[in-house]
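RECORD TYPE: inverse folding
INPUT: structure tokens
STRUCTURE:
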């Protein structure tokens, strides 16, 4: 009987070619705006998954609103147990496009980084620089340099409507949000 067929040698070679064992966090790439769908379907498979979210101020339908957005759009973190979970079924999960790879290997994420991201949900990314309707602002654009105006309303994400007085007549102008500041 030769050495290469002995049970001890065979188990050593099996261990040499065995993949990772235990539970690890991986980074998944998802379809646009389907992170929550992916997390829900992964949970249905018994997989812990999440994506960090942050509260941001956006202008929606002409109104400034505080909404919850993904910190990393299109990405979800999933904790997989190599002995339990099927990686092929994870790739086929609704909302998931696939694993993020580093070379040929799936991108692993450390547990300490996951814990930091879980703590981020208490932090906010609110944009408080936009004034409220009726606030006095100072216009700092090339056309209306150092003219006081009254803030009316946001106009999309990056512009606003201001009421300024030109030749003793109130005029509504549209300027970029970077071209005026709130007067204290």
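DESIGNED SEQUENCE:
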């Amino acid at each position: 009987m030769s050495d290469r067929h002995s049970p001890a040698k065979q188990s050593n070679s099996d261990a040499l070619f065995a993949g990772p064992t235990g539970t690890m966090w991986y980074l998944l790439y998802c379809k646009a705006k389907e992170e929550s769908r992916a997390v829900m379907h992964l949970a249905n498979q018994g997989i812990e998954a999440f994506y960090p979210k942050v509260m941001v101020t956006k202008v929606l339908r002409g109104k400034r609103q505080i909404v919850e957005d993904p910190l990393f759009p299109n990405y979800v973190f999933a904790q997989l147990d190599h002995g339990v979970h099927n990686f092929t079924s994870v790739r086929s999960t609704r909302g998931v496009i696939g694993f993020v790879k580093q070379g040929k290997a799936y991108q692993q994420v450390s547990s300490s980084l996951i814990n930091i991201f879980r703590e981020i949900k208490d932090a906010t990314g609110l944009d408080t620089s936009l004034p409220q309707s009726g606030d006095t602002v100072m216009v700092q654009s090339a056309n209306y340099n150092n003219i006081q105006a009254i803030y009316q309303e946001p106009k999309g994400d990056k512009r606003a409507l201001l009421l300024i007085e030109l030749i003793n007549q109130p005029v509504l102008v549209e300027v970029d949000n970077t071209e005026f500041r709130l007067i204290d």
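NOTES: Residues 38 and 44 are 10 Å apart (CA to CA).
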